[in-house]
Design a protein that fits this description.
This protein is mainly β and 350 residues long. The chain folds into 2 domains: 101 residues, Sandwich (Immunoglobulin-like), CATH 2.60.40; 216 residues, Jelly Rolls (Sandwich). Helices cover 3% and strands 39% of the residues. It contains 1 helix and 22 strands. Strands 1-2-19-18-17-20-21-22 form an 8-stranded antiparallel sheet, with no helix packed on it. The longest helix has 11 residues. It is globular.
Length: 350
């Protein structure tokens, strides 16, 4: 009787839920293979496929982008199963400064998950001075930006400041943004190597400080803020406007500053599937997004994306639901197949 009452309370009390759990999978985690994940409480994802997934392996960009700006197709491989990426030389004061994708103007949403991998060439030099000064090129770079496609001044962005080594995030043109500083410092990012940026964004209520921004650099938390204002005078939702790098100031020099981008994933939900190199989501140093094609509360079908995790002896599977709750890690062993077994419990977010 006590257990029945306890279960009844859990089901009724707001904010309490049965955590999602992975029970097993069928298929082989080899690049592009179909894998079916079984479990419980995965939550709903009305559109199983992401809004946009672009690994550029067709030799072209996904046509769902509103714009690819100055990016062109490059052949710098991120991993052994990859042949193409996006690239741009960001030197100059013209359109070449726009090394980013823009999400479709017709797809707006209250919350978004955004991921992209990027590499800075060894010739890439961050700027260190203010506007109009000697070293202003690449001293003001937007790394991520959310904006409504209409004539709305309120927009949210994460912005590198070379003149003061700052890395702030905030909403422009609201009275109380309560932003912060991204802790994974851009000036320490190694060149000549691929890195991963991931973001969770949720709009605030109108005039409220209840918006959410979370960010990770190579799986390390850079921001976890649940008290930002993203809307004050304009009720419209946003879409990812900058996914990549925008060199706001530019220069007239002739040196090269080559930027590469790959495996870009955006979705208007936080629900997602990932492979990681630790049984604890927060302790992973490398995660690869999996691309879903079907989703129900107890079964998810994904196209396997091992990425550059190939060769890792033990990988763990994670399912995150719409609200950001992450499942326990589920072991995917050695050759990336077999029944797997549960990993250790990890964080839960509300």
């Amino acid at each position: 009787m006590f257990l029945i009452i306890a279960l009844f309370i859990v089901l009724l009390v707001p904010g309490w839920s049965l955590a999602q759990s992975i029970a097993g999978y069928s298929g082989t985690f080899e690049q592009g293979n179909s894998v079916i994940i079984n479990g419980s409480s995965f939550g709903e994802k009305p559109e199983a496929v992401p809004v946009t997934w672009d690994n550029m392996e067709t030799g072209q960009f996904n046509p769902l982008w509103q714009s690819t700006n100055a990016l062109s197709i490059g052949t710098d491989s991120r991993h052994q199963n990859s042949s193409y990426c996006g690239t741009a030389n960001m030197a100059g004061s013209g359109g070449e400064r726009l090394a980013y994708f823009t999400g479709d103007n017709g797809t707006l949403g209250e919350r978004w998950f955004v991921q992209y991998w990027f590499k800075l060439d060894t010739n890439f030099d961050w700027g260190t001075t203010g506007y109009g000064e000697d070293d202003a090129n690449l001293a003001n770079v937007k790394i991520f930006r959310m904006w409504n496609p209409g004539r709305v001044t309120e927009n949210f962005h994460l912005n590198q400041h070379g003149w003061d080594r700052g890395f702030p995030y905030y909403t422009e043109n609201v009275s109380d943004a309560r932003g912060g500083s991204f802790s994974q410092r851009w000036n320490t990012w190694s060149k000549g190597e691929w890195h991963c940026l991931q973001f969770e964004f949720k709009e605030s209520s109108m005039g409220g400080n209840d918006g959410v921004f979370r960010g990770w650099f190579d799986c390390a938390v850079g921001a976890d803020n649940t008290e930002i204002m993203t809307r004050e005078d304009f009720p419209q939702y946003k879409r990812p406007f900058i996914i990549g790098f925008y060199n706001a100031w530019g220069d007239t020099g002739t040196d090269r500053d080559d930027f590469y981008i790959d495996d870009v994933y955006i979705d208007n939900t936080w629900a997602r599937v990932e492979l990681g190199d630790s049984s604890d989501y927060d302790f992973c140093t490398h995660r690869e997004i999996q691309v879903p094609s079907a989703w129900s509360s107890d079964t998810i079908t994904v196209s396997a994306n091992v990425g550059s995790l190939g060769g890792v002896d033990e990988l763990y599977l994670f399912v995150t639901d719409h609200d950001g709750n992450v499942s326990d890690g589920f072991l995917v062993s050695g050759v990336f197949d077999g029944p797997g077994q549960p990993g250790t419990p990890i964080r839960e977010q509300n």
